[in-house]
């Protein structure tokens, strides 16, 4: 097997040199889109040599118009019989992993049909599977708040190699970022979470519960990081790549060593000191956006207790005051639960789209 090549580049070549010529020869009138989007470390640009052990290799998504779906069996047959058995030194043929149903691994073959990883489908079918969203109408507020950030990143990351039908490019532009007032609401909910727990971390430590204090501290670190993604208008990926993607944010240069100090703190006092420094930096980042009036960038006492806080709820109130969309304003009168990313870290809830029908009821 060849030396590792980033999946985005490998599959650009795979499309240009192996797939596109076949489609042009056998289906010259076919309009389609070809892309590498959806789940996968290669889509996010975080794949490494270790990624090659599963769900990696020459692969593409081919999106067809609804009226051309009858061609899928013929298209699949051409690809199975005419694709090379290897490309750029990597097997094109795949098999299902024996111990993990649904997971594929490259398998070298030299003859017979190729069991390829080129997905042939409509964009609408793909959206229904990934998001339980058809794409016929713009997303509603409830849609945006129940779309997991990791799914939005996987749909807007990667690369489109060809889009003759235009739908995929238009969809990615539509999903590129939250509507302004939804964004303000999410920022407010992020600050509210900090305001609800920032005083609990030192209180637990003060009561002699260092483990509990550290656990709350880690929750606060995660909330700070997620707010940074929101402030810089980048969707956060799923947990494996959360920290890696965070390091690419502008604010990470200053914040990462501070947050790492909070995570490694041996006492609640050290943890509080690091978190207060992080709150100050986060408040500075907030003010730099100009989305509200200038907010305090210094910590203060939590009432008459010996604990220091940034008073995250005051940032939340300032953000909520900027919301003008009546559909988002309605949510101001309810507890600020935020989006699915705020109130759940369930893998299945984030990865399986059909839960959205139930979750939407939280906002409607």
Automatic annotation (TrEMBL):
Q: Which InterPro entries match?
A: DUF4037
* DUF4037 domain sequence ranges: 144-242
Full protein name: DUF4037 domain-containing protein
The protein's organism comes out as Reticulibacter mediterranei
């Amino acid at each position: 097997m060849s030396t590792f090549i980033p999946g985005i580049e490998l599959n650009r070549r795979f499309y240009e040199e192996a797939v596109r010529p076949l489609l042009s020869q056998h289906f010259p009138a076919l309009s389609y889109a070809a892309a590498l989007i959806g789940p996968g470390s290669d889509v996010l640009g975080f794949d490494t040599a270790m990624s090659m052990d599963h769900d990696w290799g020459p692969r593409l998504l081919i999106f067809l118009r609804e009226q051309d779906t009858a061609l899928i069996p013929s298209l699949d047959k051409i690809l199975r019989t005419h694709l090379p058995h290897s490309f750029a030194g990597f097997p094109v043929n795949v098999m299902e992993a024996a111990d993990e149903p649904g997971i594929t691994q490259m398998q070298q073959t030299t003859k017979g049909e190729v069991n390829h990883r080129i997905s042939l489908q409509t964009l609408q079918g793909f959206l229904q599977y990934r998001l339980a969203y058809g794409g016929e109408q713009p997303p509603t507020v409830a849609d945006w708040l129940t779309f997991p950030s990791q799914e939005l990143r996987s749909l807007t990351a990667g690369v489109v190699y060809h889009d003759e039908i235009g739908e995929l490019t238009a969809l990615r532009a539509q999903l590129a970022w939250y509507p302004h007032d939804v964004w303000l609401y999410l920022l407010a909910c992020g600050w509210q979470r900090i305001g609800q727990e920032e005083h609990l971390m030192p209180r637990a430590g003060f009561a002699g519960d260092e483990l509990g204090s550290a656990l709350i501290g880690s929750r606060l670190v995660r909330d700070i990081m997620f707010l940074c993604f929101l402030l810089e208008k980048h969707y956060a990926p799923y947990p494996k790549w959360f920290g890696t993607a965070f390091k690419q944010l502008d604010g990470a240069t200053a914040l990462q060593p501070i947050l790492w100090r909070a995570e490694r703190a041996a006492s609640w006092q050290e943890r509080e000191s690091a978190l207060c420094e992080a709150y100050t930096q986060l408040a500075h980042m907030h003010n730099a956006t100009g989305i509200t009036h200038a907010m305090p960038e210094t910590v203060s006492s939590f009432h008459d207790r010996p604990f220091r806080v940034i008073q995250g709820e005051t940032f939340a109130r300032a953000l909520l005051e900027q919301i003008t969309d009546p559909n988002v304003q309605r949510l101001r009168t309810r507890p600020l639960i935020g989006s699915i990313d705020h109130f759940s870290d369930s893998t299945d809830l984030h990865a399986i789209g059909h839960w959205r029908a139930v979750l939407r009821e939280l906002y409607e």
